[in-house]
Write a structure and sequence with these properties.
Distance between the termini: 61 Å
Radius of gyration: 21 Å
Number of helices: 4
Largest sheet: none
Shape: flat
Structural class: mainly alpha
Order of helices and strands: HHHH
Mean pLDDT: 80
Amino acid sequence: MNINTERARNDSSNNDSVEQQQKQKEKEKLIRDKVLADSIKIGELEAKPLHLSPQVASVLGELVFLESEKLAFDLKAFAKHRNDKTITRKDVELFVRRSSGDLLGCIEDALRKENVV
């Protein structure tokens, strides 16, 4: 194999990697936008008959997204600590215990309503 062939392969591999990174960024942006939009809708519904100012709605969406990122990071860390590749209910319970007792009650109520508990 000559040097030019090897360079062409490396360039092709780098282009694939850049394309994959770009696709991943686009996917993350779509998810972020959806989370923001949905959290604003929920906030508006819960605030009725009051209205959310655009600034409050935006901040609410950002807070929900940031908390979701923290939750995902912590759940991943708990599963990794157990040497498991699957996030389980126990990981969620650990997160809730660490976060707040009220949150645990809310989650348990939601699980009961869904007949999961």
